[in-house]
Amino acid sequence: MEFTPVYYLIPSLVMFCCGVYGFLTRRNMIAMLISIELMLNAVDINFVVFNRYLFPGSMEGMMFTLFAIGIAAAETALAIAIIINLYRVAKNIDVHDITQMKF
Questions:
Q1: Residue 11 CB: number of other CB atoms within 10 A?
Q2: Which CATH number belongs to the domain containing residue 55 in this structure?
Q3: Residue range(s) defining the domain that contains residue 88
């Protein structure tokens, strides 16, 4: 059976578009963070699919995806720590209110 990347790229495109829409329309920082993670996961799917399609015998795309997942986990932990500190100061995590804060 032949490998067809379209069956993987279409859901990845839908995931990425949902992430962009969520990032642009949400005001809550946690929802924006989830949208960014959704976009990163869509990109990781694309790395694996294109690696499998272009270079079926190699594992570079998979290794790069594992590295990207590790970086995304560290980025999420740091973002949540920043959001918690902002909530402690402002008692709100709405982006519009945070941008108007004066320190």
A1: 11
A2: 1.10.287.3510
A3: 7-99
76 and 33 Cβ atoms separated by less than 8 Å: yes
Instruction: Give, for all 103 residues of the chain, the pLDDT tens digit.
Output: 677 889 999 999 999 999 999 999 988 889 999 999 999 999 999 999 999 888 888 888 889 899 999 999 999 999 999 889 888 887 877 777 666 665 5
- Give the tokens for residue 62: 């998979």
- Identify whether 24 is part of a domain: yes
DSSP-based three-state secondary structure for 94:
strand
**Rounded Cα gap, residues 79 and 37, in angstroms:** 11
Report if residue 31 sits inside a domain: yes
In a domain, 56, yes or no: yes
- The pTM of the full predicted model, rounded to 2 decimals, is 0.83
Which residues sit opposite 28 in a β-bridge?
Answer: 94
Number of structural domains (the chain) is 1
Contact 84, 76 (CB under 8 A): no
